[in-house]
């Protein structure tokens, strides 16, 4: 039987996984930019700055899309795709047509809070990118 995690433990786990994914991206980008243990200090710090910046942009983009989605910005697109799916002959017989208002109300009930952990971890990577950049200059 699995032990139920507290919200704090879930947040810590999400933060660790998000930071690990950002770190992998940053290391890959830094390696592609020429960072190695034998590289000059200036080249290494520049590559680390680039890696952290790319990771920050990706994580901040995911975080902003999560925030925008949580306020219902993409509901119109989802409704359009839902209606398009109803045009298929093997799906249309099983679903009742629904109005946009009903669709939006149902989405509002299901909608959760945005994943702000992407924003905070992305800001952390952006801070490291600027820190490495200050050592580079």
Please explain how this structure is put together.
By secondary structure, the protein is mainly α. It folds into two domains: 1-66 and 117-137, no CATH class; 73-110, no CATH class. The longest helix has 30 residues, at 41-70. The chain has helices spanning 7-32, 41-70, 75-86, 89-92, 100-110, 117-136.
SSE blueprint:
Layout: H1 7-32, H2 41-70, H3 75-86, H4 89-92, H5 100-110, H6 117-136
In short:
With 137 residues, the chain is mostly helical. 75% of the residues lie in helices and 0% in strands. The chain folds into 2 domains: 1-66 and 117-137, no CATH class; 73-110, no CATH class.
Average pLDDT across residues? 87
Helices, by number, come to: 6
Low-confidence stretches: none
- Structural category is mainly alpha
Strand content: under 5%
Order of helices and strands: HHHHHH
How many domains, as an integer? 2
Main sheet record = none
Q: How much is the radius of gyration in Å? A: 21 Å
Helix % is: over 70%
Principal-axes geometry comes out as: elongated
Q: Please provide the count of β strands.
A: 0
Distance between the termini: 54 Å
